[in-house]
Design goal:
The chain is α/β, with parallel strands linked by helices. It is built from nine helices and 13 strands.
Amino acid sequence: MKLKEIYDVLNDISSFELQEKWDNSGLLVGSFEDEIENIYISMDLDLELAKDLKSNSLVITHHPLIFSGIKKVNFDTYSTKILKELIKKDISLISMHTNIDKTHLNRYFVEKILGFKIKDSLEFLAYCEVNMTFEELVKHISNKLNLKTLKAVRCKDFIKDIAVVTGSAMSLLDEVKADCFLTGDIKYHDAMEAKARNISLIDIRHYESEKYFNKLIEELLFEYLKKNKLKAIITASKNPFEFFIEGETVE
């Protein structure tokens, strides 16, 4: 099967033209004329995973392996080490990042994982009415994401509505019109800024909020794969972070 055929299906699902200007979604490694024997789906690529992939395969990832221009290919960085493995084994790579965030992933996470109904949405931001105490909301999120530790900023004891963006989106704080903002990678100064604006925060973490990309893409490709008698291989890149409580590792 030609890679171009699969690319076109993915483009129909979520147009690559929807990606942000700074993003690098689309075909990153390979040629549209490549013959594909296996399809892998993974949120990220790490070196261990790249070494396990079969030759003449296509990998569909959420995060692009390459964001900015590469001036040296000397195989001593994260991206170039993996590029060496992909090229050596004739493995193609397509990434679906901000385009799938806008069209599918954020909604999937909010509705299917957190169990909230989206009242309104604006590109990345999904708004939901929750009417919970802050403690109830924190407990709900912890249970749904199976998090034993959770970082949050409390500005209000009662939360009427929330805004949610998977991954890392504190840059969107200016646009948030809700009692509480849920996103990942919240930094100290982000917390101070949100508190000054009276917006509560819950850090849903980057990996933990986007790891559902694999299941989402598998579901979206189900009919196409079934029709063509193909099977997508779901792979799991590892979260680079470990979490500890009193010296003991936790999830």
